Amino acid sequence: MSDQNLSKQNMMVIDGLELSKWDREFLLELKKGGVSCVHACCVLWENARETLSKVSGWYQFFQKHSDLVIPVRRGEDILKANAEGKIGIILGTQNTSSLEDELGLVEVFEQLGIKIMQLTYNNQNLIGSSCYEARDSGLSRYGKLVVEEMNRVGMVIDLSHVGEQTSLDAIHHSQRPVAITHANPDWIYPSKRNKSPEVLQALKDNNGILGLCAYPHLISGSETPLEEFVDLIVRTIDFMGVKQVAIGTDLTLNMSDDFLHWMRMGRWTHEMDYGAGSANNPSWPTWPTWFKGPADFPNISQGLLERGLKEAEVESVMGGNWYRFFDEGFLRQKEM
């Protein structure tokens, strides 16, 4: 069976995170790639009021493109999108800035459709530390209560940009499996944004899931060959197990320089903070030739098949594992 047939007939393709310019052209590119569902980031530094406007914008997007998309609040929404040939969209935030200092807003935003929240972005906040802080003081008292509330209401905890100790604390405090939607093992690609063996072992023991990231600054740049990315997937499967590894591309497509500055600096600094980038490479990264956009997802599945993974294993990594995780993770605790 060719990869194209595998993609269309048997396989759900779910991307653990994208931060791109969402328009109809982008949706059609996702359809070309056989994508069933995407976790779409809608907040980086926004406060509660600003997040409401972001969510409102997404509601309008869902209405305008209802022939192509389905908003996802439960696992069955992903199945429905896949069955109807549409794209399920999971709203998530890459920060807890939306909560400000009010615990009750966890449930408010969950009810509005935010189903994934990353505890910290690139800076210290009321919850804990980011991966870029010189000292990580761990999960705060407020952070522990937020983790408990996210567990209760069925909002997935994301640790992708979170610091080492805060990540370990959150994993140990959470009564439910957590996610790292977009990062890589740091012993394969050294970076503050990637994850240590200690964090990934704790994630594995928590029955959590890791979305491997194709963001060029977190691999070997735009020159990374597909075979090297496939090798990353295989080596991570060897460590985590095939049921706990997925894809989270962190695709950033057609975004403006103004947004890049907002993404990196928010309102917390007047000086450029490059995050995973650098002064020598300050712009949006150039993506590898085998993943210039979402239409190229079949290149990854084809690479895994050619590497020798079984079809069932490829299906798990490309989307099956995310589906199982989200299907359970989006349930309220009392429903389990």
From TrEMBL:
Q: Which Pfam families match?
A: Peptidase_M19 (PF01244)
Q: Which domain of life is it from?
A: Bacteria
Give the GO terms filed under biological process for this record: proteolysis
Q: Which Gene3D superfamilies match?
A: Metal-dependent hydrolases
Please give the PROSITE patterns that the UniProt record associates with this protein: RENAL_DIPEPTIDASE_2
| PANTHER family assigned | DIPEPTIDASE, MICROSOMAL DIPEPTIDASE
Q: What is this protein called?
A: Membrane dipeptidase
Q: What is the lineage of its organism?
A: Bacteria, Bacillati, Bacillota, Bacilli, Bacillales
